[in-house]
Amino acid sequence: MFETLRTFFGKKDQPPRPALPAGERVYAIGDIHGRLDLFEELIHAIERDELDEPASGQTTVVLLGDLIDRGPQSAQVVARAREWQARRPLRILAGNHEEMFLESFDSADVLRHFLKHGGKETVLSYGLPEAVCNNATLEEIQAHMHGCVPKQDRDFIDGFESCVSIGDYLFVHAGIRPGVPLEAQVRRDMLWIRDPFLRYQDMHPQFVIHGHTICETIDEHSNRTGIDTGAFRSGILTAIVLEGERRRYIQAVEEAGMIAIHKEEQTV
């Protein structure tokens, strides 16, 4: 399950291993995309992990964005994230799907694109009947969305962050523009970028943990790690656990109609 894509370097070429400050631990979770079942199991696994291996100081959970769309329970994922955040340090990043969702309330062009890329499932999860959605105009769907989606959900999603920096790590949904200082990065790149970031092999100012680009296995490189394992279609939701220089993984994996938890320690 954890056949990761790793780039190996000799001792001479290997950069210093990124680390978190002493006493801190981070659990970062990849793109959930409406899979409440996997998210729920991963929440329980993280809470059990904390009991099994208590952290010596601050523990933070980071959701890497794209909580919504494509899977069947986006509204329920948003509600669960809000509830979890009320109980513990939880920081949530905006993904490109959250951006489309918010903009679709006022733009028919964005709504058209949103519905084609998983947004229909989000609208249905908020109670809009599928028969209505299939036969309504874009303007009618917008009117239903204004009535079905609570303002508190829109405000909650609108408050998602663009990036989170902790120690040597930068957590961001899609990536960053290579060669641009962190303070000069633009939000659109952090939510949407692909090839310029994915192809870049030199070091960034910080080691980047990201989602957005689906990979069949955890995508490990010398300057970044991608953990979007395509939960909505693969049935695999991935979290990376960071503490000091240590890295390990926890995955909620759908197998034969059941969800199992898999763990692995990174040895490289």
List keywords for this structure.
Purple Acid Phosphatase, chain A, domain 2, five-stranded mixed β-sheet, six-stranded mixed β-sheet, 268 residues, disordered N terminus, alpha/beta
The succession of helices and strands, N to C, reads: EHEHEHHHHHEEHHEEEHEEE
* Amount of helix: 25-40%
User: Largest sheet, described in full?
Assistant: 6 strands, mixed
CATH topology: Purple Acid Phosphatase, chain A, domain 2
Number of domains: 1
Terminal Cα span = 17 Å
User: Which value, in Å, is the CA radius of gyration?
Assistant: 19 Å
Number of beta-strand segments: 11
Shape: globular
Tally of individual helices:
10
Could you give the topology of this structure?
Blueprint: E1 25-29, H1 36-52, E2 59-63, H2 74-85, E3 90-92, H3 96-103, H4 108-125, H5 130-135, H6 138-148, H7 151-158, E4 163-166, E5 169-172, H8 187-192, H9 195-198, E6 207-210, E7 219-220, E8 224-226, H10 231-234, E9 236-243, E10 246-255, E11 258-265
